[in-house]
Amino acid sequence: MSPSRLLFGASYTFGNLAIVSVDYEREWYNGIRVKNVPEGADFHPEAYKAEFKNNYKGTNTLRAGVEVRPLPIFAVRLGGGYTDSMFKDRQQYYNSPSVYESYYITGGLGINLGRNTVLDVAYQMFAQGKNKLELTALHLTVGSDVNPLHTDNFEEVSFGPILYGAKKLGIQIQTRYEVSNNAGVDICSIVNNEGYDFLLVGSGISMSNTPDDIAASHYRASFYNRYFKRFKAPESWFYPGALLKDETKMFIEQSNCPVGVFVNRNFVKASNVIVVIDSEEDLFLLGYAQTLLKSTHGSASVLDKSSSTTPGNEVIKEGILRFTEDVKQTTLLREKDLTPQSFNGFNFMLISYKTWNDVSEHRKEALQKMPSTLILSK
To answer: Is 202:156 a contact under the CB 8 Å cutoff?
Structure first.
């Protein structure tokens, strides 16, 4: 049981700088028809029809929004809307709570996570795996105020670069655009319900050292300090990096498949890889490293952080030895700990989520020199 709807809108794209949209929606609540009366109800369908006709009216909704991109990878979005009452008599009350009219304003900041770069990582990591590579690019716009009539505009801007990148690599990729009120929850739901084998997400700009990301970080900090700090707004509203830890944890704990979180540090190719092993649980990384080397024809070195007191130490040593013997261009590093010098000569790092949490807490100085990194869950 729902009212008839009329929906139309207009949008205009100012090159790659901005998108402006205005929408109008009309819903006729006074014209609702009821086919089946709830079991046990005394009302006849005609009585329901009369109730809606006599006490309800059509509603009007107006929505408007603008998205501005001051930098290629950074977007500021502001929108708002108004819906008037569905009731003819505002003084008439029903047993259940009723909304007579509503206003809302929405806003947000968006970060382009380098989708072409993430595509390159996915291709290099999995193109030479046992199974055929099937990729889906998922983009979620947060906010229910996006009119379905305008999703083509948003979709074209979102997927243009990655489709071009896929064409250059000679691979097929499916694209999927969704509007969401809770991106993290919806991503996990899609992954779990539709049987995906792997979830690869970008980590945002907080640890990136690319020029565009550094510029975006400075712009974001200036935006917060100038307009919102005086109102004591939480910095986490404007610093995705502050939310990343919780979202990464949610992806890993709530997804039924392995998860990879990619940190971009001027990534081009994973041709010289460092694999960090700290426990027996980390040995699964060696399988990823082997598949990666088949694609890049590069080399890999293992940094074994475990000690003689680490549980499963003998299993760790045996697993690393077998890996270096069976896989060409692989070695075991002499050092046992991460230092800034540990990353000299490497352009990619594989590390488990558990070990990452430890080194990001206790080896912050070393991580300032880290290469592009893929944080993996088993």
So the answer is: no
Element of type H or E holding 74? strand 74-83
- Alpha helices by DSSP H, the chain: 45-55, 115-126, 151-169, 183-193, 211-227, 240-254, 284-296, 313-326, 353-362, 364-367
- Burial code (b: 16+ CB inside 10 Å, e: under 16) for 90-108 equals eeeeeeeeeeeeeeeebee
Secondary structure (3-state) at 234: coil
Residue where the block lists tokens 């990384």: 285
Gyration radius of the chain's alpha carbons: 26
Nearest to 374 by CA among 304, 284, 310: 284
- Sign of the alpha-carbon torsion through 356, 359, 364, 370: negative
User: DSSP 3-state assignment of 173?
Assistant: strand
218-235 confidence digits (pLDDT tens): 545 554 455 445 545 444
Per-residue pLDDT tens digits for 82-105: 888 888 776 665 555 555 677 777
Distance of alpha carbon 155 from alpha carbon 137, whole angstroms: 11
Read off the pTM: 0.64
